[in-house]
Amino acid sequence: MSDQLLLKRSNSKLNYFILITVIIAAGLSQGLLLPVLSILLEQKGVSSSLNGLNAAALYVGSFAMTLVAERVLGAIGFKRLIAAGISLVLVTLLLFPLLPGIKVWFILRLLVGIGDSAINYAAQLWVLLMAPAEHRGRNLSLYGMSYGLGFSLGPAGISLLRFGEAAPFLILAGLFMLALLLVLFKLPNSRPDKVEHSEGQARRFGRSYSLAWYALIPALLYGYMEASLNSNFPVYGLRSGFTTDQIATLLPFAGIGGLLLQLPLGLWSDEYGRKKILIFAGTAGGLAFTLLPLAGGHFVFTLLLLLAAGGLVGSFFSLGLSYAADILPRNLLPAANVVSSFHFSIGSIIGPGIGGLLLEFGWGSGVFVLLGGFYILFGLTGLLFSPQQMN
Questions:
Q1: Residue 356 contacts residue 48 (beta carbons within 8 Å)
Q2: Regarding predicted confidence, which is higher, 15 or 313?
Q3: What is the pLDDT of residue 58?
Q4: pLDDT attached to residue 5
């Protein structure tokens, strides 16, 4: 084997490691900001419906970024887009404690959403394009595990509030600074393959939908679940009798479950087929969510159900994207990546809003009954989907 080939493989592994590190930071920012800000607003007397709508601002910003992400990435490349996203989140984190208030936080959350979306879009597409088909499930699962790790550790930031409201934001900003330095000094400048101009963006999105609609829905459900759980569960937990420390302990277990099953589900999807794994995980995970209200204020039962539900559906984004890559031709993968990010943002926007309204009207258990019902419906819908390969 030539020295040049060895160097190329070594650089590829280093790039993958850096992307994994960056996505941990992105997951950490969302996992921390959602519950911390929800608790701060609840303690300030903000209504649960308004609290949920404010949380959705992060994903409105993410949605806005997905509309231009493909073009911006083509213009400036992977490294610059990731660095720009990290920089925007870093600056915004420092402004949260300096500019308190629900209106200002809405704007700041928009900016965090834009930055996180830029990071996620560029990093996940780069990983997807680097992954060989036979190891796609494994590689995307490791990527998803990294995001899940960050997202799971995020709620631990609730405990930092005892040191002052600024503490979680300052510590997270420091971690983003380290990630930014790693990207600037170690990642190479790289751009995706140019897309043929003979086919417009809207047409490529349409083809992605027509060929792989079932594989693109998991991103929608994952976004809905993630945002709803982290925004609505703290309020639901406080009203169910849990303390803030108990909530900080419980919330990560949904992510821990995802971490435990992310790689096994990815490997099984490589072996048995991604559609079968999506059907099974969606149906079983949905059932676990619908049972959650029966646990009431019982700490251990709630923990176990969150662990099971999170474990089963925590791989949905990466599994769906891997399934789309199996079905779609390579030139449609950037468009499918945009659609997945678009779906994730839409789910994340409507999740906290719907959950907040259910809490406002006194039906807190409805947050999880509805969430579980969506996943079960998705699992059953898989029986109707037959992918068509297109070259």
A1: yes
A2: 313
A3: 80
A4: 37
Residues 6+ away with beta carbon under 8 Å from 275: 214, 323, 382, 385, 387
Q: How many other CB atoms are found less than 10 A from the CB of residue 268?
A: 20
Q: Which of 267 and 59 is assigned the larger pLDDT?
A: 267
**Residue-averaged pLDDT of the chain:** 83
pLDDT tens sequence across 337-364: 788 878 887 887 788 888 888 888 878 8
Mean pLDDT of the 189-214 span = 72
Residues in the chain: 391
Give the HSE-up count for residue 299: Cα atoms under 13 Å, Cβ half-sphere. 10
Tokens read off for 131: 């992954």
pTM above 0.90, yes or no: no
Instruction: Please list, in sequence order, all residues whose beta carbon lies within 8 angstroms of the beta carbon of residue 368, skipping any fewer than 6 positions away.
Output: 289, 290, 292, 293
Q: Give the 3-state secondary structure of the chain.
A: CCHHHHHHHHHHHHHHHHHHHHHHHHHHHHHHHHHHHHHHHHHCCCCHHHHHHHHHHHHHHHHHHHCCHHHHHHHHHHHHHHHHHHHHHHHHHHHCCCCCCHHHHHHHHHHHHHHHHHHHHHHHHHHHHHCCHHHHHHHHHHHHHHHHHHHHHHHHHHHHHHHCCCHHHHHHHHHHHHHHHHHHHHCCCCCCCCCCCCCCHHHHHHHHHHHHHHHHHHHHHHHHHHHHHHHHHHHHHHHHCCCHHHHHHHCHHHHHHHHHHHHHHHHHHHHHCHHHHHHHHHHHHHHHHHHHHHHCCCHHHHHHHHHHHHHHHCCHHHHHHHHHHHHCCHHHHHHHHHHHHHHHHHHHHHHHHHHHHHHHCCCCCHHHHHHHHHHHHHHHHHHHCCCCCCC
pLDDT over threshold 50, residue 2 = no
Residue range 117-141: mean pLDDT, rounded: 78
Q: Which two tokens stand for residue 236?
A: 């639901």
Q: How confident is the model at residue 7 (pLDDT cuts 50, 70, 90)?
A: very low
The Cα–Cα gap between 116 and 93 comes to 12
Q: Compute the half-sphere exposure of residue 173: CA atoms within 13 Å on the CB side of its CA.
A: 14
